[in-house]
Write a structure and sequence with these properties.
- The structure is a single chain.
- This protein is α/β, with parallel strands linked by helices.
- The chain has three domains: 260 residues, Aconitase, domain 3, CATH 3.30.499; 140 residues, Aconitase, domain 3, CATH 3.30.499; 154 residues, Aconitase, domain 4.
- It contains 19 helices and 25 strands.
- A seven-stranded mixed beta sheet has the order 22-21-20-19-23-24-25. A five-stranded parallel beta sheet has the order 4-3-2-5-6, sandwiched between helices.
- Helix 2 links the parallel strand 2 and strand 3.
- Helix 2 crosses helix 5 and helix 11 crosses helix 13.
- The longest helix has 17 residues.
- The radius of gyration is 23 Å and the shape is globular.
């Protein structure tokens, strides 16, 4: 039977020779990782459910969100995990190590064809070496630590081929921003994408990491790039193991196939608020900036930093602009030191941080303030994700050039004199929230509806990353939607038993469990959406929190606060105000089983 790359990897890790899209299978997990903010909840889940570890040689902590330990709650979580690790003999890649998803590649833990799960929503970076990586919530990771396995729905596959020559001025970040411009945040939702092409084969590991790291922002499960000989050699050297190249069968069946003309790709940036809102950089050329950031799991590799140094050499950062640079791992930081790059950065006036996620995870340098305009190499620029200001996304070359110019530009258009700031006399102020609790539910429920007609509501809009250190469910509800325009007072208005109906790709973004548990805290009974972010869907199912998808409910003529009835088992939605009903997607057998027993770990 012909298999795509994802199907082959999953089949190799299951008890089946052939797996098909849509089927739910149990898969063996080769590498199981928890980070600093999710790690404490993973440990609590294990202890509270009396679970032991399956295999400590495959189990790791990576403290990358707050490698400075600058936040007391992060520091407490990190120490809690360290103590557990000492008891159990678990390897900890501590605050001096760098980003976990990069470490599992560079330390030879993950190999082409292997499976990796992490509390990092960008674990699909592992697609860069042709491995299956998946971000998951703390219940999922606890189950993987305890059993060595997890359930997974086999995704449909897309074959995406880049034809033609790569333009000279196109960096890896430009490639993925061009793809986001073409496909948006939900056109590829739930798919595994295989990337092919003559120029794709030539991509370096660092470039592959940049592209694969933004699969999450495209709504995809993963972007798998078949490993080249160079990638295989790198992984063999790092792991001291012989690796067989894994590829899709020539006659593999794809749900869709696309061919794009690589030669038409242009340098791009993403406009503030949405990574998929990417445009030709010329459309925002000379936009004044306050700060710039180079780093994150998307662009903190040595090639990115060499390119940055090439632009900064013998130049200065524009007056009043702050450039923050954070290598992705300690090994890369030391290479920068050995090659003289750190000296170049410092002479130019940049701030250099220790290895880690930096501003993207709100735990280290890279955050911005109200009214601040930042250009960043991060993978996300959701409102509030990297602070209270506005964040454009671009390549390291564009960010470095912009930091020197004082405005958004490209390396070939750096002016002789940088732009200067003028006083505006404008200032902004923040806001505050409130609380409530949650209830057990049957398979047929009734409640009043909140209609939230928006697509791509991301996890930072649902439960902002500034509250990530909260681990008690009863404290979470008060912060629900306090970063979603038009719904910041949701926690004050909602009543226990209410139901939320929304649009496509609900829960896009991070792997945070709190974005599910905050609704449980408020007593919301169920969320209906046209589609859900892949990680969010898992987190809700595993928490026994009902979520359902629908195709078209316009015939119900629903109005705000109408009373409705939902049958989870039969997949029937009824408007009790006019007795009109439609079919919706019912619970899968796995969802029903987990729901009835009260959660994945019960």
């Amino acid at each position: 039977m012909a298999l795509t790359l994802i199907e082959k990897i999953l089949a190799n890790h299951s008890d089946k020779e052939v797996v098909k899209p849509g089927k739910i299978i149990d898969i063996k997990i080769d590498v199981r990782v928890a980070r600093d903010f999710g790690g404490a909840n993973v440990v609590k889940n294990l202890i509270n459910n009396g679970l032991e570890l399956d295999d400590i040689t495959k189990t790791f902590f990576t403290f990358d969100c707050n490698p400075t330990g600058s936040d007391q709650k992060y520091a407490a979580n990190q120490q809690y995990c360290r103590m557990f690790a000492r008891e159990k003999g678990i390897k900890v890649y501590d605050v001096n190590s760098g980003i976990g998803t990069h470490l599992v590649i560079d330390k030879g833990l993950a190999l082409p064809g292997s499976t990796i799960v992490s509390t990092d929503s960008h674990a699909n970076i592992l697609g860069a070496i042709g491995a299956f990586g998946q971000g998951m919530g703390d219940r999922d990771i606890a189950a993987a630590w305890a059993t060595g396995r997890c359930w997974f729905k086999v995704p449909k596959s897309i074959k995406l081929t880049l034809k033609g020559k790569r333009p000279i001025n196109i960096y890896a970040k430009d490639i993925v921003l061009n793809l986001l411009n073409k496909f948006g945040a939900n056109q590829l939702l739930g798919y595994s994408i295989e990337l092919y092409g003559e120029e794709v084969e030539k991509l370096t590991l660092d470039e592959r990491i940049t592209i694969s790291s933004m699969a999450t922002e495209m709504g995809a499960i993963i972007i798998l790039i078949p490993p080249s000989d160079e990638i295989i050699s790198y992984c063999e050297e790092r792991s001291s193991k012989k690796i067989d190249k894994i590829v899709a069968n020539p006659d593999a069946v794809y749900d869709k196939e696309y061919e794009l003309d690589f030669s038409t790709f242009v340098p791009m940036v993403s406009l503030p608020g949405h990574p998929d809102d990417s445009i030709d950089i010329n459309e925002v050329m000379k936009t004044k900036i306050d700060s710039a950031f180079i780093g994150s799991c998307t662009n903190g590799r040595i090639e990115d930093l060499r390119e940055t140094a090439k632009i900064l050499k013998n130049r200065k950062i524009a007056p009043g602009v702050v450039l923050k640079i954070v290598p992705s791992t300690d090994e890369i930081w030391n290479k920068c030191l050995e090659e003289g790059l750190i000296g170049i950065f410092k002479k130019a006036g940049a701030l250099v941080g220790n290895a880690g996620c930096a501003g993207c995870a709100a735990g280290q340098i890279g955050q911005n303030g109200p009214g601040e305009i930042t250009i960043s190499t991060g993978n996300r620029n959701f409102a509030g994700k990297q602070g209270k200001g506005k964040v454009y996304l671009g390549s390291p070359a564009e960010v470095a050039a912009s930091a020197v110019a004082g405005y958004i530009t490209t390396p070939d258009k750096i002016p002789e004199k940088p732009a200067e700031f003028k006083a505006t006399g404008e200032f902004e102020k923040p806001s505050a929230p409130q609380k409530e609790e949650f209830i057990e539910k049957p398979v047929v429920i009734e409640g009043k509806v909140w209609l939230i007609g928006k697509d791509n509501i991301d996890t930072d809009m649902i439960f902002h990353n500034r509250y990530l250190t909260i681990t008690e469910i009863n404290e979470m509800g008060q912060y629900t939607f306090d970063n979603l325009e038009g719904w910041k007072d949701f926690a004050e208005k909602v009543e226990p038993g209410d139901i939320v109906i929304t649009g496509k790709n609900f829960g896009a973004g991070s792997s945070r469990q709190q974005a599910v548990d905050c609704f449980k805290s408020l007593g919301v009974q169920v969320i209906l959406a046209e589609s859900f972010g892949a990680i969010y869907e898992r987190n809700a199912i595993n928490a026994a929190f009902p979520i359902l998808t629908y195709k078209d409910i316009s015939s119900l003529e629903l109005k705000q606060r109408d009373k409705i009835k939902i049958d989870f088992e039969k997949g029937i939605l009824t408007n009790l105000e006019n007795n009109k009903s439609v079919e919706i997607d019912k619970f899968s057998s796995v969802q029903m089983e987990i729901f009835k027993k009260g959660g994945l770990l019960k």
